[in-house]
Design brief:
- This protein has 508 residues and is α+β, with helices and mostly antiparallel strands.
- 30% of the residues lie in helices and 24% in strands.
- The protein contains 16 helices and 23 strands.
- The strands form 5 sheets. It has an 8-stranded antiparallel β-sheet with strand order 11-9-10-1-4-2-3-23. It has a 6-stranded antiparallel β-sheet with strand order 5-6-7-8-12-13.
Length: 508
């Protein structure tokens, strides 16, 4: 899972890109990168770490130009080398930089084709570099010294024909413009907006979430639709075209469950309202299952579950209390490699407020349960703090299958719900009662009730094992598991480079 941003402006964009990346920091805390363009020159800074740590004053001064793209990353195959951080760059047929959120499911085949047929070399294990080279090759086949919008769109059409999986992309072509596109299923989010500067010129911004646009005073225009591309040429003219006519909108529903900020609007749906509805539907399920429940207090597991937990408590007519204080400087635990590291991290991340637990029947609410490591320890903490009974509710259904579209969920054997009943999971995590959201209720939660969007279907593969791209085999899942299990999660590259490079394109 990653966050991407691109800005076409007429004044320096380094600070705006930095600020936008901090707003998107929740989408990736492993690495950050930024490329700006000034008079045909690219300036790149990328490294492992948070945005605030990667970009220092000396780096910001070097990031010159009025156009640029940025990226924050979680690794999705266990590799955390600086070389894997984005954006990536190629210099043929033009200087092109690209940032990508998602995962190509046919990356291995594409990499072979790039080497044997396209005569292109990929330096890293990142599928984003593969995607960049596919786009660059298809653009080269257009045979234009100066590419125009139709050449860009033709190249994107060819990308859609060659690449499968999830990809939301923003790229810059040195001296020519900025392009952004989204895979034919729209699995990963991408949205763009516009603002008018003091000189009356229109400036554009593309980002993973609407909050990044709003933070920089851009007015949201639209989501980039599945199979659609936009191109902003060097003069600031925006071109928009559907390049995959058979696109079917099936965005990842886990964005609403966990990853997106609650103040974002994704595909016309408010993430905040979706999470409110998750709480309502879960409360109704509890009322049906246990009309005479003895819940004294509802306590959220910070932070993502708070909205759902609050609405759940309101519907049940039960007190809502904050029972855990969160250390915000600890990363997300289900992505951390190694069981021991995750256990240590949970203890560092959450501290209970004992008085909210003592002598009470407590319902803990989390956004989801992945490995079960976190909720098992949290239940233990609740008991140690004096709770009489500890119930546990998940605002999402049971996660039984790995994600193949850009979320680094573990191998299926490491998913606590894989191959187990709810009762077995309940016993494993030590809860007195466990309840999950129903999948149909989750889907209803993520669709606005006012009919303001044509959104009907989602990728729900982590819950039902149905992968919307239709190309996922058991062999693919096994290969993915070999890369993602705890044993395989080791750093592939320990290099410590500055990550600051001047990239000059002679064709610009």
């Amino acid at each position: 899972m990653c966050g991407i941003v691109g800005i076409h402006s007429y004044s320096p964009v380094n600070q705006a890109l930095y600020d936008a990346l901090t707003v998107l920091q929740h989408r990736g805390q492993d690495a950050a990168g930024m490329v700006t363009e000034n008079q045909g020159n690219f300036f790149l800074r990328k490294s492992n770490g948070l945005v605030r740590d990667v970009f220092r004053t000396r780096h910001m001064k070097r990031l010159e130009g009025s156009r640029g793209i940025g990226h924050v990353r979680y690794p999705t195959a266990g590799c955390s080398s600086t070389a894997e951080s984005q954006p990536f760059y190629v210099n043929s047929p033009y200087g092109i930089v690209l940032a990508h959120n998602g995962n190509l499911t046919n990356a291995a085949d594409l990499k072979k084709a790039l080497f044997k047929a396209d005569l292109r070399h990929v330096n890293t294990t990142s599928d984003s570099e593969v995607l960049l080279n596919v786009f660059a090759h298809e653009l080269q086949l257009q045979g234009k010294i100066k590419p125009e919008s139709e050449d860009i769109f033709s190249a994107v059409e060819s990308v859609y024909q060659r690449c499968t999986g999830a990809y939301a992309v923003v790229a810059m072509i040195s001296g020519y413009g900025m392009v952004a596109f989204r895979d034919p299923h729209g699995i990963r989010p991408l949205i763009y907006g516009k603002r008018t500067n003091k000189q009356g010129k229109d400036e554009y911004m593309v980002a993973s979430e609407s909050v990044a646009l709003i933070s920089q005073d851009f007015e949201v225009i639209s989501d980039i639709e599945p199979g659609e591309a936009i191109y902003i040429d060097i003069e600031g003219n925006l071109h928009r075209k559907t390049c995959a006519p058979n696109a079917v909108k099936s965005p990842c529903i886990f964005e609403h469950v966990y990853f997106a900020r609650p103040d974002s609007i994704i595909d016309g749906c408010s993430v905040y309202k979706a999470r409110l509805r998750m709480g309502e539907y879960l409360a109704e399920k509890i009322q049906k299952a246990r009309p005479d429940h003895d819940i004294d207090v509802v306590i959220p597991i910070p932070d993502t579950s708070r909205t759902s937990a609050l609405q759940l408590a309101n519907v049940l007519g039960v007190k809502f209390r904050e029972g855990f204080m969160k250390n915000r400087y600890i990363g997300r635990t289900f992505i951390m490699p190694g069981q021991a590291q995750r256990k240590k991290s949970v203890k560092q991340k959450l501290n209970p407020i004992n008085l909210e637990f003592k002598d009470k029947n407590v319902l803990l609410v989390d956004d989801s349960i992945v490995r079960g490591t976190t909720c098992r320890q949290i239940i233990d903490m609740a008991r140690e703090s004096g709770a009489k009974k500890v119930y546990f509710a998940s605002a999402a259904p049971a996660i039984r299958y790995p994600n193949v579209y850009g979320i680094d969920m573990p191998a299926k054997e490491e998913l606590i719900a894989h191959g187990r009943t709810v009762e077995q999971i309940q016993d494993l995590i030590g809860a007195d009662w466990l309840i999950y959201q129903d999948l149909q209720d989750l889907i209803k939660s993520a669709i606005p009730t006012d009919g303001s969007t044509d959104l009907k279907d989602f990728d729900c593969s982590v819950f039902n094992g149905e992968y919307v791209t239709g190309d996922i085999t058991q062999e693919y899942l096994q290969n993915l598991e070999d890369m993602r299990n705890d044993t395989a999660k080791t750093s592939l590259d320990k290099e410590d480079e500055s990550g600051l490079i001047d990239l000059h394109n002679d064709n610009s």
